[in-house]
Give the backbone structure.
Amino acid sequence: MPKMKTKKSAAKRFSFTGTGKVKYKKQNLRHILTKKSPKRKRNLRKPGILSGDNLHEIKKRLLPYG
């Protein structure tokens, strides 16, 4: 059986923490930043941790060797 291919689009968007959680960059920090509060923009800079529902999908189907 051949190797499974990693979905490269997912590999660019998600990464793993040391404990195996899936980390991603939050949305809404690209443009139209003047109306967003500094507190909101500061919190959007922090990485998001994927919830348990989508975790299995990302790990098994999109990033099989992650």
The beta strands are 14-16, 22-24, 48-49.
